Amino acid sequence: LGPAAGGWAAAGALLLAARLALGRAGFGAMGRALAAAGFVGAVGAMFAAGLLDHLSLVREAAGRGEEVRAALTGHLALVAAALLPALAIGAALGAFAFAVPRSATPVMGVLAALQVIPAIALFALLIEPLAALGRALPLLRDAGLRGIGAAPAVLGVFLYLLLPVAAATRAALGAAPAAAVDAARGLGFAPGQLLLRVRLPLGAPVFLGGLRTATVQAVGLVTLGALVGAGGFGVLMFQGLGQFAPDLILLGALPVAALALVLDAALRAVEEGLSRGTAGAT
């Protein structure tokens, strides 16, 4: 049994409506996370009881269990490989833009310009330079730096993530109230103490918001990496598109959506917790 496109669209609309209803009812991130956990638990119980075995999507997943596990591992690895260096370099660029205000416009402008390039085009543009670099430096080629594979996808996603991380860092460093900064300076805080004891703690919720944006963006963009041989859930999605197989498309798309929602909810809960702590401190 395979629901038509309208059935899946209706299910997605119901889930979205439930999420909006929880938000309007005053449930915080923790309440929404508990509701999501309850939903996942209910679906898991239905799977365990065999109530969903007749769905063609479930049968497709059962027949491709090894591929799904490999796609999950590959997808998470690609996200981490792009996100972690983007956090380090993006935070450094954001801190530099905050410390040297006249540099903010050119730095943020260059990072914003990267967002204009379509992801597929950026991945394609990176293929030849990376292939040439691999040919010139065999050691890097042996380490996996090639024009086709994970390298162009990771580098492309990394470039996209620099803007949200840098912007969040810059905003976070400037989020501390002027009164708190002046009070710290009046107490004789050195610049390093001011950063570690005032600016970073008070700006942490703002930075978490940027991290949440970058994480969700990475989960989605990595899907396109399958077009350059990177792996991940995009492989299943594009196989399904090539074979006109809706179940195979969903087998790649649904885990990506679920992963993005789970990470978004987890980081949002941390962000709201830090916001409450910051509000209490100020």
Short précis:
By secondary structure, the chain is mainly alpha-helical.
Report the helical percentage.
over 70%
The radius of gyration computed from the alpha-carbon positions, rounded to a whole number of angstroms, is 22 Å
Order of helices and strands: HHHHHHHHHHHH
Identify the CATH architecture of the largest domain. Orthogonal Bundle
Organism: Neoroseomonas eburnea
Pfam family, one: BPD_transp_1
Subcellular location: Cell membrane
Transmembrane segments: 33-55, 76-100, 106-131, 143-163, 214-236, 248-267
Write the layout of secondary structure elements.
Elements: H1 5-24, H2 29-48, H3 56-63, H4 65-99, H5 104-116, H6 119-136, H7 138-142, H8 150-173, H9 178-186, H10 191-222, H11 233-243, H12 246-281
Helix pairs in contact: 2-12, 3-12, 4-5, 4-8, 4-10, 4-11, 5-8, 6-8, 8-10, 10-12, 11-12
